[in-house]
Amino acid sequence: MSTRSLLPQFFCAVERRLTLGIAHRTSCTKTVIRRVSYLKQKSVIALTRRHLISDIQGFIPCQRYTTSTMAPVIPKGDPIQIVDNLIKNNRIAIFSKTTCPFCTKVKELFSSLNLEVAVIELDTRDDGADIQDALLQKTGQKTVPNVFVGGEHLGGCDSTIAAHQNGRLEFLLNKSQAGPKAEMPDDVKYDYDLVVIGGGSGGLAASKEAALLGAKVAVCDFVVPTPIGTTWGLGGTCVNVGCIPKKLMHQAAILGQSISDAKKFGWDVPDSAKHNWHTMVEGIQAHIGSLNWGYRVALREKKVNYLNAFAEFVDPHTLKTTDKKKKETTITSKYILLATGGRPRYPDIPGAREYGITSDDIFSLPYHPGKTLLVGASYIALECAGFLAGIGVDSTVMVRSILLRGFDQQIAELIGSYMAKHGIRFQRGYVPIKLERIEEGSPGRIKVTSQNEVGELLEEEYNTVLFAIGRDACTNNIGIEKANVMLNPRNGKVICDEKEQTNVPHIYAIGDILDGKLELTPVAIQAGRLLAKRLFGGGTMLTDYVNVPTTVFTPLEYGSVGLSEEDAIAKYGANDVEVYHSFLTPLEVAIPKRDDNEGYAKLICVKSLNEKVVGFHILSPNAGEITQGFAIGLKLGATKADFDNLIGIHPTIAEVFTTLNTTKSSGADVLQKGC
Amino acid sequence: MQRVIKLNLINETSSVFRRSLSIGRTASYQSFNVQDQEDFQKRVLNVSTPVLVDFHAKWCGPCKTLGPRLEALAAEKLDKFHLAKVDIDNVPELAEEYNVTAVPSVIAIKGGKVEGSFVGVLDDDKLRAFVNKLIGE
Ligand SMILES: Cc1cc2nc3c(=O)[nH]c(=O)nc-3n(C[C@H](O)[C@H](O)[C@H](O)COP(=O)(O)OP(=O)(O)OC[C@H]3O[C@@H](n4cnc5c(N)ncnc54)[C@H](O)[C@@H]3O)c2cc1C
Fold first, then answer.
1. According to its record, what are the GO cellular component terms (chain A) (predicted)?
2. What's the predicted TM-score (pTM) here?
3. Which helix (H) or strand (E) element contains residue A447?
4. Which of A111, A606, A634, B42 has the most beta carbons within 10 angstroms of its beta carbon?
């Protein structure tokens, strides 16, 4: 290490490059790793300090200073610049504090990997607090360590360790090493500019946009039938076996509730009003059929070549497509977009695939499901249980541990108790271990044996068993290894950068298969459209995966945007988080006199950020409709005062957010009382 | 041309010949589901009799109104035209070839050439006029 390179380090006295292991290139072919101990390094600094005094005289503070072997060491100045420069000029940048054990842990991780890191110790410089504020602005993260790799924000200690385990760290390091992306050779002729694998939410959006911008595009979409043979048309999960039929069945259930409420409002509704499964399924499937056709026509009109065939890699630019009749074709493309989505997972227990079904089957089930067991605590399990119970199906949910992992847990439990009150049975702490068919039929009879943690067995008969224990990314059968695309080994999802670009520069991925991102249709669509614009229309906008609103369509809907209470506390610390909340009773249920105080609203605010609202949560009818509009408030950085200043629309449920004045920390009663 | 004397409900995959009783004598008309492009070539493009092609879908409500009315007209006009029914989900290639974007869509073909077309449900008079023009009545 040259003495010159240490100069600014000494001068500013605070930035310090932690050289935990330096790879020195001694020749073109040989790389020697020299490990420098922490102690030894300190003495090097001490030593050089003395030698440098004379040099310092000529040094102008606040000047950018770079050398080939060193990170640019940024003197005091604009804290945002300081942050940006450290990130921009170093493969690995860490904002740390000398006293923080998590910072030490992160540094040790990189040290164990023999990786060179650039560190700013915030507690050793007087503008440390300003830099921390700048970091908060940039990343929404206030705590240290705050780690960046290859220019991308990784997060704190836990996220860095997780990134190491799930392959993301390796991905970012490789990417930053590769330097600027190699341009595609222009002289190679491909069949297409872009081939999209998967005609779902993301794939269709991307292919149409790309074609509109003049690219020659093909989209391959092929549905592998479920174990019981269910299959469907163009459009992917959302249209055929997801959002659309789910919301329509949810509507069927809501109508059931309305019919019984109607009597109290004076309607002469016969008690014999019954639900007909076949009529509902036929109506829903007819609507889906028309949507499938609409997508086909749209592709045709936009001149996207639609290949109803299964695609797999032959090499990084070549795909083999196999259609229904097993006819194989080979196509090549300059860019390839992976948008293959996910499929429901089956547990590895006897009888699961033979006798069980999933969300892929339920929406077109040709017979009434009868007494149904739903296995899983995912939003899909709870939504299905909700609409089934709502149309009169005997429904039981079997859950290993918590409900709705990843969602706000207070609300998850409120959803569970509401569902339990409305006739859905919960078997918590159990997992199925065996399914046996007792009787064939439509539906047949299935005996389910399940077990809890202490080994107690439970046996019960059902007509239908629906697994909703998670979804697997469709990346294991598309020859992805032939294209060398990196996957997270833990979940098979594709690792990408913020441009949805994989480690192979001409291969991109969007939608449900994207590692660490949200599995939602509008997210996939946005990513697809913006990616196409960047590839073919000179666009620069990236998909913003933060503050994405979402709704769980359980009988009482749950809408949210931003952080759960748990995540807010983890990010900002319990002392810095204030929660305003209230239970609520929609006016509509006042006359039927049901569901008193079953609804709930809360805003999660960060005290030190002027009570900026970082989490919005509502459990109520039509929560989806309520949440969509408020989400823009959070995106624009609304504070609690902004919510207070907003005038409500009366009488609505949503107006509750303009008058939330009880904090959770006060412990005051928030049940609405009286007539 | 095949003549069918008995009420003959052959399965949907082959030609369906039905006896028309409307004019008080035993007669036949031809109405069939198109299986694929080859079938279309053989039974629609390569015949001299005019053919009405009814592009329809299972999920399409208006198709369920128009279908039976076309069927009734075919039965009435006997062999003056044939009715070819194309389920666009089963034979999407044909829908594409004839640029069908909405259903029901009906095209009239004579000697392999498109003579006319309409989209949606026509009222009886217009429908009759359309058919009459095709068969030259
Ligand atoms: C029950 C359920 C309810 C849901 N509800 C909602 C909701 O309310 N709101 C919401 O936003 N999201 C919801 N989702 C999630 C939403 O459906 C997905 O996020 C979305 O469909 C993802 O889009 P995608 O483009 O990534 O993949 P998909 O839509 O899954 O499309 C992928 C397509 O690629 C095809 N394919 C896969 N491999 C190949 C191959 N090798 N060759 C050719 N084709 C291939 C697949 O068959 C599929 O058609 C729900 C999902 C489920 C299961």
1. cytosol; mitochondrion
2. 0.81
3. strand A445-452
4. A606
The structural domains of chain A, with segments of one domain joined by +, span 3-178, 192-343+472-536, 352-469, 556-658
The CB of A311 under 6 Å from ligand 1? The reply is yes
Residue in chain A lying closest to B88 (CA): A293
CATH of span A556-658: 3.30.390.30
Burial class (CB in 10 A: 0-12, 13-18, 19+), B80: middle
Architecture of domain A3-178 in this structure: 3-Layer(aba) Sandwich (3.40)
Instruction: Indicate if A650 belongs to the active site.
Output: yes
- Which amino acid appears at position A450 of this protein? S
- Nearest residue, CB atoms, B57 vs list A289, A300, A301: A289
| Rounded-to-integer distance, Cα A332 and Cα A326, Å | 19
Measured from the CB, is residue A238 less than 6 Å from ligand 1? Answer: yes
Q: Verify whether the Cβ–Cβ distance B58 to A289 is below 8 Å.
A: yes
Pick the catalytic residue from A164, A368, A422, A650: A650
From A237, A333, A508, mutation site for ligand 1 pocket: most ligand atoms within 8 A of C-beta: A237
Between B89, B101, B102, which is nearest A289 by CB?
B89
Q: Are A331 and A219 in contact (CB under 8 A)?
A: no
User: Which CATH number is associated with domain A352-469?
Assistant: 3.50.50.60
> Which residues are CB-neighbours of A31 under 8 A, at least 6 positions away?
A23, A24, A25
Q: How far is the CA of A174 from the centre of ligand 1 (A)?
A: 30
